[in-house]
Amino acid sequence: MGIKSFVHKLGAQARGGEQPTDQSGARAKTGAGPTSRAFQLFEEFAQGLGYAPAEGEPDADRVSRGQKFHRSFPSFAKSIGYTPAVRPGVILQSLDLEVSEVIDGGVAHGTPWLYQTVPKARFVLVDPQRRLRKKLKWTPENFTIVKAALAAQDGGTMTLHENKALSSLKVRTGPSQDKVAKTYEVDLTTLDTVIEQEGLTGPLGIKLDLEGYEYEALQGLDRHLDKVAFLLAEVSVLNRFEDSYRFEELLALTSSKGLRMLTFMNVPRARQPLPFFDCLFLPEDHPAFAWDK
Predict the structure, then answer these.
(1) Do 85 and 267 contact (CB within 8 A), yes or no?
(2) End-to-end CA distance of the chain
(3) What count of Cα atoms within 13 Å lies in the side-chain half-sphere of residue 83?
(4) Could you tell me the maximum CA-CA distance found in the chain, to the nearest angstrom?
(5) Are 269 and 238 in contact (CB under 8 A)?
(6) What is the pLDDT at residue 269?
(7) Residue 13 vs residue 180, higher pLDDT
(8) pLDDT over threshold 90, residue 281
């Protein structure tokens, strides 16, 4: 069994959602509690690596090995590059930010974790896709919709390459470039204009998931930077789009606007680079940047 399969199975076991099977594929009979689950998973994993139980090994010793493995697995997984899942909502809540309004730029089907994190906030959902309201699977309690694409300047139109949650004003370079369902012209607006037209007064949260157009959208935020409590942006690392920005260029832009990156909201993988990072930015004078360890 590979590492990924093992991790998946261990998680399913912990949730009680999957029962281990024996070599024939039948459901194995196990005792209750984590000891028996850890023991069986340990045996499967060890055998997959070529380690078989010693002939005649007492059951008590084998269970003891399973218990030890259960306790040491987190450090083992970390040593080979696996890290605990990051929950963006938990990170935002830990900062205890005061936010009364949120702009959700690039809505796709909705951002449920964000709506749950600040449930009392007023949301402005900005997305140019046709029939957006019908496509929304999740919505906050209090929201309005702006049917336009965020850009560097107001006015004019651009071509949207519609592909569900991967819809973009940019042309993709990877495998998904041939999956565009349709293209059509959409109106352009800026963050400054949305803030003014919607009467947003702050403290304001901004989430940008614009499939490669985050840089241009941030260029359209100048007049109301003092209202921003946080910015959460998907920032490309790999060359996902034609004529797209570089990771360090977007960080330089946010820095010029007084916003500083605090942390990643998804987990970087050293052995398998992510195509993008979800980055959390705060005003550069925020106390979260103080070193108090």
Answers:
(1) yes
(2) 41
(3) 12
(4) 78
(5) no
(6) 65
(7) 180
(8) yes
Instruction: Give pLDDT tens digits for 94-115.
Output: 888 999 999 999 998 899 999 9
Both structure tokens of 269: 């993988």
The strand pair at 228-236 and 276-283 is best described as: antiparallel
Helix or strand holding residue 93 (H, E): helix 88-95
**CA distances from residue 77 to 69, 80, 85, 111, 196 in whole angstroms, order as listed:** 11, 5, 12, 30, 48
Q: CB within 8 A of 86, min separation 6: which ones?
A: 264, 265, 266, 267
* pLDDT higher at 183 or 255: 255
Residue recorded with tokens 């920032």: 235
Whether 61 shows a pLDDT value over 90: the answer reads: no
Residues in the chain, overall count = 293
Burial annotation 262-283 (CB, 10 A radius, 16+ → b, else e)? bebbeeeeeeeeeebbbbbbbb
What is the C-alpha to C-alpha distance for residues 117 and 262, in angstroms, rounded to an integer? 18
Q: How far is CA 213 from CA 84, 85, 129, 143, 281, in A?
A: 29, 26, 15, 23, 17
| Encoded amino acid at 101, one letter | E
> Which of 253, 38, 215, 224 shows the shortest CA–CA distance to 124?
224
Q: How far is CA 75 from the centre of its chain?
A: 23
Any idea which residue has 């901004």 for tokens? 206
Reported pTM: 0.71
